[in-house]
Amino acid sequence: MTTILLLGSGELGREVAIEAARLGVRVVAADSYDGAPAMQVTPYRRVLAMTDPAALR
């Protein structure tokens, strides 16, 4: 299965996540706060400081 990582999970990311899931792609939504819009439509989510390179590993 193909997996994509959305760095920033706002409204646009939410729409991308919905369409990607419809195509059978696993979407991991990442943002600096829990409950970002794309996180509401995928079970795979990470809350992290996106400006911290170590957190992105």
- What best-fitting shape do the alpha-carbon axes yield? globular
The side-by-side strand order for the widest beta sheet comes to: 1-2-3
CATH architecture call: 3-Layer(aba) Sandwich
Beta-strand proportion: 25-35%
Jot down its keywords.
21% helix; Rossmann fold; 57 residues; 1 helix; alpha/beta; 3-stranded parallel β-sheet
How would you sum up this structure, described in words?
The chain is α/β, with parallel strands linked by helices and 57 residues long. The chain has one domain: Rossmann fold (3-Layer(aba) Sandwich), CATH 3.40.50.20. Helix content is 21%, strand content 26%. It is built from one helix and three strands, in the order βαββ. It has one helix at residues 11-22; strands at 3-7, 26-31, 44-47. It starts with a strand and ends in a 10-residue tail after the last strand.
Fold topology:
Elements: E1 3-7, H1 11-22, E2 26-31, E3 44-47
Parallel strand pairs: 1-2, 2-3
In short, what is this structure?
By secondary structure, the protein is an alpha/beta fold. The protein has 1 helix and 3 strands; from the N terminus they run βαββ.
